[in-house]
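Q: Focus on the shape:
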Amino acid sequence: MFGKVLDKIQNIINTITGIMLFTMVCIVFVQVIMRYLMGHSISWSEELTRYMFVWMIYAGVNLGIKSGIQIKIDVVDMIFKGNAIKTVRILEHILTIVAILFAAYGSIMLIKVGFRATSPSLHVPMWIMYLVFPVGFLLDLVETIRRIVIEMKGDEGV
């Protein structure tokens, strides 16, 4: 049940990141046309595409965790087999959780700073832009815990 809900959330994230990627390409295309053919640039385009890119990355990291393509040492998978590899993978996930928690704590500090600043071109409060970090880390945390449960059950279909 929980796995299906998480899958639906990840499908929504996939759709949103796809829309953001398409929008970014359109904005950059228009910016290039404006700059080189019209001699004028759109002042907010670079800033908006940068923020969209960051949102895409942080919202999409959990999809990499789900697919097992997050940063890890692949040689470990070749050395260990059977129950040993299961234990090693659980330890990898626990270390991932520790890293996520440290990063999430740092992101909360960043949001506090963001309450005092606005973006230069869009004039959006920076705390809104910085929300991507705890949101992304929460998604990563949930998916990593899900991976631990899957490893412990030995069921890759969850």
Remarks:
- The mean pLDDT is 89.
- Helices lie at 2-38, 45-67, 74-79, 83-114, 126-130, 132-153.
